Amino acid sequence: MEWLEIFSDPNTQWILMGSMLLGLSSGVIGSFAYLRKQALMGDALAHAALPGVCIAFMLTGTKSIFFFLIGAIIAGIAATLSIGFITRNSRLKQDAALGIILSAFFGIGIVLLTQIQHSDSGNQSGLDKFLFGHAASIIKSDVYTIAGIALFLVLVSIVFFKEFKLISFDPGFAKGIGLPIVALDQFIMLLLVTAVVIGIQAVGVVLMAALLITPAVSARYWTEKLHVMVIYSGVFGAVSGIAGTIISTMANNLPTGPLIVLAATFLFIISILFAPRRGTVAKWRMRSQAKKDYRYKIVNQEVKEKSL
Questions:
Q1: What does DSSP assign to residue 31?
Q2: Alpha-carbon gap, residue 48 to 95, rounded angstroms
Q3: By three-state DSSP, how is residue 140 classified?
Q4: Which residues have C-beta within 8 Å of that of residue 140, sequence separation ≥ 6?
Q5: pLDDT digits (tens, 9 = 90+) for 170-218
Q6: Does pTM top 0.90 for this prediction?
Q7: Which DSSP string corresponds to 40-67?
Q8: Assigned fold of 9-210
């Protein structure tokens, strides 16, 4: 079939593999950010990564994911420390601090990006693609890097699963048994920044937060168990990556990154409507059945009273 011939292209295969691994790792790490009510933190870290990436390019002159990772980690740490400083030393709440830091870092990133584009290496940089993603630029070496980092993120989530679970649901108890809450919190932020860096090439800074949180929110509708939710979230993220890539490959002039996010959003809509216990349809059926049972009980009671 003609559409099967598309996937015989090696470039398409690498893009598909990279998008799938990106969705998998983002879904797994995003689960803990969502459970800890830090969905906006993923957005802030994604936007904060842009100036780090730009500075790394300005210093090295190369588009290396390794150097981008270092720059984004430094920028992410600076962003989290800034958010913590604002919340501790002012009356502003975390959501306000997040908005301030997100806007400030993103503004700095845009300024640096503009400077790069007007420099001698601007035409070759292509960093403007990092705003909304450019999955078609993924090559074999990029996939190897993404695969290594994605595997690292998944393995870390498995090794520290109990610790992440405790600080997500009962940080007070975790602190009481001696767990380093602050260090673990910063460690999760570091993992989020790492996931953002490998994702901005395909999805972009603006949309990366959606890929971190949407699969996790979708997975929450399907189960009450954390380990199952993390697995579902990874699967939903991987499926979103595959679906978005396939759709963009079969159609002309459609961007892969936004389609991956739209695929994740579609899975969220399916989850919120048709999840077996938490879904809208299931709740409607439960309410309808409860009303029927109540009416049946009232009718039986009236029959008994009349028979007496």
A1: H
A2: 15
A3: helix
A4: 10, 14
A5: 888 888 888 898 888 888 888 888 888 788 777 877 788 888 899 999 9
A6: no
A7: HHHHHHHHHHHHHHHHHHHHH-S--HHH
A8: ABC transporter involved in vitamin B12 uptake, BtuC (1.10.3470)
